[in-house]
Amino acid sequence: LRDLKIKTGTVKRLFKDENSYHKESESQQKHIDKLISEGADEHDISKQKEVLQESLNMIPDCQNRLKEAQKELQ
């Protein structure tokens, strides 16, 4: 029973993490679009794009961990 609770908690956390990365990516993209429209410094824009890319790179990793956790739960 204890293992079941732990594995269920892991799946819930990973699901929340994935949603968080999606929301963060959307927010970051809006921020980048705003910087571009305001004519911000190219260096600032490129740094924000790096932050966006980091978030986007975390989504597949999180999805893989979620799939593994779901398999363990079954």
From TrEMBL:
<dbReference type="Pfam" id="PF02970">
    <property type="entry name" value="TBCA"/>
</dbReference>
<dbReference type="GO" id="GO:0005829">
    <property type="term" value="C:cytosol"/>
</dbReference>
<keyword id="KW-0963">Cytoplasm</keyword>
<comment type="subunit">
    <text>Supercomplex made of cofactors A to E. Cofactors A and D function by capturing and stabilizing tubulin in a quasi-native conformation. Cofactor E binds to the cofactor D-tubulin complex; interaction with cofactor C then causes the release of tubulin polypeptides that are committed to the native state.</text>
</comment>
<dbReference type="GO" id="GO:0007023">
    <property type="term" value="P:post-chaperonin tubulin folding pathway"/>
</dbReference>
<dbReference type="GO" id="GO:0007021">
    <property type="term" value="P:tubulin complex assembly"/>
</dbReference>
<keyword id="KW-0143">Chaperone</keyword>
<dbReference type="InterPro" id="IPR004226">
    <property type="entry name" value="TBCA"/>
</dbReference>
<protein>
    <recommendedName>
        <fullName>Tubulin-specific chaperone A</fullName>
    </recommendedName>
</protein>
<dbReference type="GO" id="GO:0048487">
    <property type="term" value="F:beta-tubulin binding"/>
</dbReference>
<keyword id="KW-0206">Cytoskeleton</keyword>
<comment type="similarity">
    <text>Belongs to the TBCA family.</text>
</comment>
<keyword id="KW-0493">Microtubule</keyword>
<dbReference type="InterPro" id="IPR036126">
    <property type="entry name" value="TBCA_sf"/>
</dbReference>
<dbReference type="GO" id="GO:0005874">
    <property type="term" value="C:microtubule"/>
</dbReference>
